[in-house]
C-alpha cells in the first residue's frame, strides 16, 4: 500500500471513529438492551452490536476487498493478516459502558500484509482519540506525543487487574506480588484498550493481563510500538495478533526489569 492510499484510509477510518463516537453519545439517553454472552459478567449491549455493524457497513461499501475481525462476530472469519485487515472492538469496556457510561473506548487497528499500519483508540466520553499512522508518531487528538522514555520499577505505575494476583489458572499469582510491592502503584481501568493507550502516552508505565482477544489489543499493539514502547506476551515472546494471548506492554527498560522480576525474582518477595 503506497503512502497516499494509506493516508486516505487513515483519514477515512478516523472520520468513521468520530462518527461512531457520536452515535454512542446520542445513545446515552436511550435505554440499553443488555444481554449476557458466556457468563454473568460477560455483557453485551445493542450498542456494541450496532457500532460493529456501523463499521462493517462502511468498510464493505468503501473497501470491498478488506477483511474485518470484530468482537461481536458480524465481520469475516479472518484466518491470516494477508491483504488489509481491520480488527475492531466496537466498545471495549462494556461493563464500564453499562455501569458508568464512561471509561470505555472504540478500538480499531488496521493491518496490511501482517504489519500494523494505523490505529485508533477513542475514549468517547473524554473526547480523547489516541491514533497513529505507522512511522508518523503517536497523536492524542491534534497533539503529537513524545517517544516513551525509560523508567525503573520503583517509579512505575502498572495497569494490573486484581484477578491476576488471586489464584488463577493462567499464572502463578505469587510471581506478580513483587510488582505490586515494588512499583509506585497499580491501577485497573476495566478497558484493555484504554490501558494500552495509557501505556502508549505515558500515563501508565506498563500494563499486563493474562488473557485478551485480538480486538482488545490490536490497536494498542500498533500504538505502543509507534510510541517506542514494547509489547509482548507475558513471557516476553512476540504477540500473535490473531490469537487469544497474554499481553505485557511497557516502556523500554522497564519491560525487561519486570520480566526479570517475574521470572527470576523470588516469588515470596511481595508477600
Ligand atoms: C474487556 C475489557 C477488559 C478486559 C477483558 C475484555 P470488552 O473487553 O477490555 O478490560 O479485562 O478481558 O474482554 O468485553 O469490554 O470489550
Ligand atoms: Ca465483550
Ligand atoms: Ca474488548
Ligand atoms: Ca467489546
Structure description:
The chain has helices at 3-27, 46-62, 94-100, 177-182, 192-201, 214-226, 254-264, and strands at residues 34-36, 43-45, 67-70, 84-92, 105-112, 115-123, 128-133, 138-140, 143-144, 157-160, 185-187, 206-212, 230-232, 245-250. It is α+β, with helices and mostly antiparallel strands. The protein has two domains: 3-144, Fructose-1,6-Bisphosphatase, subunit A, domain 1 (Fructose-1,6-Bisphosphatase, Chain A, domain 1, 2-Layer Sandwich), CATH 3.30.540.10; 153-270, D-Maltodextrin-Binding Protein, domain 2. The strands form three sheets. The protein has a seven-stranded mixed β-sheet with strand order 3-4-5-6-7-8-9, with helices on both faces. A hairpin with a 4-residue loop joins β7 (128-133) and β8. It binds D-MYO-inositol-1-phosphate and calcium ion (CA) (3 copies).
Features:
271 residues; alpha+beta; Fructose-1,6-Bisphosphatase, Chain A, domain 1; D-Maltodextrin-Binding Protein, domain 2; 2 domains; five-stranded mixed β-sheet; 7 helices; globular; binds D-MYO-inositol-1-phosphate; binds calcium ion; magnesium; inositol monophosphate 1-phosphatase activity; inositol-phosphate phosphatase; Inositol_monophosphatase_CS
Amino acid at each position: 500500500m503506497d503512502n497516499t492510499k494509506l493516508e486516505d484510509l487513515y483519514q477515512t477510518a478516523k472520520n468513521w471513529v468520530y462518527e461512531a463516537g457520536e452515535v454512542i453519545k446520542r445513545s446515552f439517553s436511550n435505554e440499553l438492551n443488555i444481554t449476557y454472552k458466556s457468563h454473568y459478567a460477560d455483557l453485551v449491549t445493542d450498542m456494541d452490536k450496532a457500532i460493529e455493524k456501523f463499521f462493517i457497513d462502511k468498510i464493505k461499501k468503501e473497501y470491498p476487498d478488506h477483511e474485518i475481525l470484530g468482537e461481536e462476530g458480524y465481520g469475516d472469519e479472518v484466518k491470516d493478516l494477508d491483504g488489509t485487515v481491520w480488527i475492531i472492538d466496537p466498545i471495549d469496556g462494556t461493563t464500564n459502558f453499562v455501569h458508568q457510561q464512561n471509561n470505555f473506548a472504540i478500538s480499531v487497528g488496521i493491518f496490511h500484509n501482517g504489519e500494523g499500519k494505523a490505529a485508533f483508540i477513542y475514549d468517547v466520553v473524554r473526547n480523547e482519540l489516541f491514533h497513529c499512522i505507522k512511522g508518523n508518531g503517536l497523536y492524542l487528538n491534534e497533539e503529537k506525543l513524545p517517544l516513551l522514555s525509560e523508567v525503573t520499577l520503583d517509579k512505575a505505575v502498572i495497569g494490573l487487574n486484581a484477578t491476576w494476583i488471586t489464584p488463577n489458572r493462567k499464572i502463578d499469582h505469587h510471581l506478580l506480588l513483587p510488582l505490586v510491592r515494588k512499583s509506585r502503584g497499580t491501577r485497573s481501568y476495566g478497558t484493555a484498550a484504554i490501558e494500552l493507550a495509557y501505556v502508549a502516552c505515558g500515563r501508565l508505565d506498563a500494563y499486563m493481563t493474562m488473557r485478551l482477544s485480538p480486538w482488545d489489543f490490536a490497536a494498542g499493539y500498533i500504538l505502543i510500538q509507534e510510541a517506542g514502547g514494547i509489547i509482548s506476551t507475558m513471557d516476553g515472546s512476540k504477540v500473535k495478533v490473531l490469537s487469544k494471548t497474554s499481553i505485557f506492554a511497557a516502556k523500554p527498560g522497564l519491560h525487561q526489569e519486570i520480566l526479570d522480576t517475574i521470572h527470576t525474582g523470588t516469588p515470596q518477595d511481595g508477600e
